[in-house]
Description:
- By secondary structure, the protein is an all-beta fold.
- The chain contains no helices and eleven strands.
- It has strands at 4-7, 10-13, 18-24, 33-39, 46-52, 57-59, 67-72, 77-82, 91-98, 102-104, 108-113.
- The strands form two sheets. Strands 2, 4, 5, 6, 9, 10 and 11 form a seven-stranded mixed sheet that branches.
- The termini are far apart.
Amino acid sequence: xxxxxxSGGGLVxxxxxxxxxxxxxxxxxxxxxxxxxxxxxxQQRELVAVMSSGGSPNYADSVKGRxxxxxxxxxxxxxxxxxxxxxEDTAVYYCYAYYGRTYWxxxxxxTVSS
Length: 114
């Protein structure tokens, strides 16, 4: 079992940056896949960025070059650095982990105004 708690969301202007953090309730050393999804109103939840335990990241095409996902095994956290934010990035962002089954955080709201 693992609990995931997100923080760092907020309201920002287009072109600015935010850093989201996900804190896990246990060591993430052995969790093979962790990262972030997002869901905008009326839309499906979509993958944003994930990282394997070996450190290999994968990004949605819409965020490549702007977002960076990182894992800190010592702190049991997974962060998402978001730069050059656009209004279309507005969504609830969910921390994700796969550890025998899928786990989700409660979500944190990111709103980007134009």
